[in-house]
UniProtKB/TrEMBL annotation:
Residues 6-347 form the FAD dependent oxidoreductase domain. PANTHER family: D-AMINO ACID DEHYDROGENASE, SARCOSINE DEHYDROGENASE-RELATED. Its cofactor is FAD. Keywords: Flavoprotein, Oxidoreductase. It comes from Streptococcus merionis. Belongs to the DadA oxidoreductase family. It comes from the Bacteria. InterPro entries: FAD-dep_OxRdtase (IPR006076), FAD/NAD-bd_sf (IPR036188). One of its GO terms (cellular component) is cytoplasm. This is Glycine/D-amino acid oxidases (Deaminating). The lineage of its organism: Bacteria, Bacillati, Bacillota, Bacilli, Lactobacillales. GO terms for molecular function: glycine oxidase activity. Its EC number is 1.4.3.19.
Length: 373
């Protein structure tokens, strides 16, 4: 029997995870095409801790908390496939609050949310002095709640690992930009590739891909910048720190600290470095870890997030065409819910029974076929 051909355009966290799971199927051959420019996944900070959000969208919360919980299965799958150094670690997360009553509210919220998502773990209140016992250079006037379930992800390592496993499973990886001839035919470097199933996992670039076929897509880009330091600090087991305000501090292995990120609207697909924003991130980070004043920035990352007009992500099939799949609008939580979204799409395409209902996140509201002029 001839294998069905699945083509995935976009090799960020969604496309790469889908490619990885689909490439395990003996009945399919999978091609992943990725341009890579401005990719959000490689630019992202890496926070996996959605449980303290005050966002009111219940469908979003359910998806994203389940997405964080899915990391256990996901990492186990990667481990079984021979990956020894995993890109995700459950380090715990400190979430700082300006007022005592907000700390108590966070614990209460966690207690309520633990019923549906035990992955949140234990949640306890810590004074600034107790935080400094765990992270000695950390200076803050605010107390924090500590959630043992919080973790951090190295997005670049994950997509590299997924690509290696996918290629090992027989998948074909093509680097470059693709366009669509029609809903099942992809044009890549003058060659037309025909898909039995086509997945568009191109993040913020979905309008560019679909508008030539007459679709109107409710997705806009948002620019994000962040900085890295290579320090001599003993960061390996430090938790992620989420102080009030825009920046977060993520300690990775061997002294690496990631600080981010900016949220810049109306910048289109611009991925140039803005020195004022970069200096602002460093200054702010040094108010929490004063040693960083004397550290040189070792890396700057810039990427483009995808947002819908109601800030909700979508994924599923387009306009009743069960061979054309899309996922976009993951905004600032796509590292958290992206793998779970990709896994669900893969389960559907392979005809396996997924435990999750896709209806609340249907693309229908966000993608419309325009009538022919
Ligand atoms: C600075 C920053 C910090 C963030 N921090 C966090 C965080 O801490 N936690 C969290 O959960 N989320 C975070 N996010 C959000 C998260 O990174 C994104 O939601 C997620 O990575 C989106 O994944 P994706 O696969 O949908 O898109 P992307 O990762 O953007 O991947 C899309 C890919 O498609 C490619 N592509 C586009 N058009 C074409 C084409 N025509 N042909 C071929 N390839 C194409 C692009 O080049 C890109 O490589 C952050 C994002 C940014 C920018």
């Amino acid at each position: 029997m001839e294998k069905k051909h699945i083509i995935i355009i976009g090799g960020g966290i969604v496309g790469s995870t889908a490619a990885y799971y689909l490439s395990k199927s003996p009945d399919h051959r999978v091609t992943l095409i990725d341009d890579g420019t401005g990719q959000a996944t490689r630019a992202a900070a890496g926070i996996i801790c959605p449980w303290f959000t005050l966002k009111r969208n219940k469908d979003w919360y359910r998806l994203t908390s389940q997405g964080a919980a899915f990391y256990e299965t996901f990492m186990e799958d990667l481990r079984k496939d021979g990956l020894e150094h995993l890109p995700y670690k459950q380090t715990g997360t400190f979430v700082f609050k300006k007022k005592e009553e907000h700390l108590r509210h966070a614990v209460q919220l966690a207690d309520e949310r633990r019923v549906d998502c035990p992955r949140i773990g234990e949640v306890t209140i810590h004074t600034p002095e107790e935080v400094a016992q765990v992270i000695p250079p950390f200076t803050s006037e605010y107390g924090a709640v500590f959630a043992t379930g919080g973790g951090r992800l190295n997005g670049t390592q994950l997509v590299d690992d997924l690509r290696n496993l996918f290629v090992k499973n027989g998948g074909t990886y093509l680097q470059g930009s693709a366009s669509l001839v029609d809903e099942k035919t992809v044009l890549f470097q003058d060659e037309e590739l025909v898909a039995d199933h086509l997945i568009l996992a191109v993040g913020a670039w979905l309008p560019q891909l679909l508008s030539p076929l007459g679709y109107d897509v409710d997705v806009r880009p948002q620019k994000g910048q962040l900085i890295e330091f290579e320090t001599n600090l003993q960061t390996d087991d430090w938790p992620v720190c989420m102080p009030p305000g825009e920046i977060d501090l993520l300690p990775f292995e061997n002294g690496r600290m990631v600080i981010g990120a900016s949220h810049e609207n109306d910048m289109g697909y611009d991925i140039s470095v803005d020195k004022d924003i970069i200096n602002g991130l460093k200054e702010k980070a040094a108010t929490f870890i004063p040693e960083l004043v004397n550290e040189a920035i070792s890396k700057i990352r810039v990427g483009t997030r995808a947002y819908t007009s109601d800030y909700a992500p979508f994924y599923g099939t387009v306009s009743g065409n069960d061979k054309l799949w899309v996922a976009s609008g993951l905004g600032s939580s796509g590292l958290t819910n992206g793998p779970y979204i990709a896994w669900q799409m893969a389960q559907h395409i392979l005809g396996q029974d997924p435990s999750y209902d896709l209806t609340p996140h249907s693309p229908e509201k966000y993608i419309q076929k325009l009538p022919k002029a």
